[in-house]
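Journal club side-thread
Mid-discussion, someone asked how the predicted structure for our own chain would compare to the paper's figures. Pasting it here so we can look after the session.
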Amino acid sequence: MKNELTCVECGRMYPATSGRVKCVCGGQLVPTLPRSLRRVNAPGIWSWEATLVASVFSERVTLYEGNTPLVHAPKLAKELNLKEIYLKDESRNPSGTFIDRGSATLVTAARSLRLARLVTASLGDLGVSVATYSRRAGLRCKVIMPSYITPVKAYQTAMLADSVEYVESYKESLSKAWKYGSAPASMPVTPQNPFLLDGYRTLAMEILTDLRTRKPGVVLVPVGDGALAYATLQIISKFSPDTTVIGVRASSKSPLLKDVAVDHPLFADLLKDLMDHSGGYMIEVGEDDVVSALKLLAKCEGMLTELTGATAVAALIKLSDDLRSTSPIVSIISGGPARDPAVLRTVVSEGHPRYLTRIGFTKMKILEILALQGPLHPYAVWKILKSEYGVNVSLRSIYQHFSELNEMRLVESAEEREGKRRRKVFRITDEGLSLIR
């Protein structure tokens, strides 16, 4: 196998040691496909060193990621009237997500190339994983996230990364990651980084080898930006062409799914081309689908998973009538056990007010600031968010947050005298206080 990266647009090839993450033409770089699937006795995903482009680097980083179980799920199969289901449980990885596979190859490359800093654009799990492996390798890591990120992911990232910046949107975080990551001794980390894809491919390799002489009829893969689905399709199209890969997208219309939903996946065009050639397809699931999947996984197999993990199972429920004769079926679970109280409350408490399903990081910080400092004008809160928490969003966006919190009855407006002037301030309500306690 050649340790090379290939541009999907113009076909140029670069050695992995070049450290390039994008072609000179601007096209996506992907790792060269292996000739065969061969394992060796090594820790973590490095048991696949014969298939990895990053194996050219000697300073390998691992937290014993990969080699996750392919869990037989007979009760789930019976419930859905399907022949045979396996759950590829990626929640067993160090940070609870498949991304750890890519972080191992990415951070190995960065350390071997003598880089000092990784700059990561994240919707949650990517920042946590890359920061985790950066700590392991002694590299600095800056994470840039949209300000609506859920508090659980925000706090996890803050504990691991060297610095965190919150911006208006995911698009802005991607743009800033490329800008800051292009500085000397730095590397931008977005879902398009080819060294991430290198590690992601080991997931499909494990599925194919763990089933031994059998081949899966269908593999269901969660799709955010589509990097995992693309890496999975690459391997399965070559080594198991009769297997159908179904990409599962989460609806962006639900606040419950905001962390896992991407309106315009970065790999959308590449995924479409590859699926058109392989017979795969995409399906979208909504909030009710995912909640049903969370409940069914707990009931049938005793598994508690985050929303990311449940999306593929939600699609399996939705497609069960069409998959009656398909066997075996593999559904990928990722994201660790469900610990977010808001999500658990939504699943367990039927009819709970919808607005409590997800309060993002910025709204939560606004409530905390009002609880600590008393009634404030939105401008004052905006200044505190920027100076103390790195939330770089527009003042207009802050006013919008206050408007939404007011509609939710988590804050209320009041008038405050300042000399002869009156000005509008906001204070936290009892309901708002109960949410942050």
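Post-session note: The chain has a mean pLDDT of 89.
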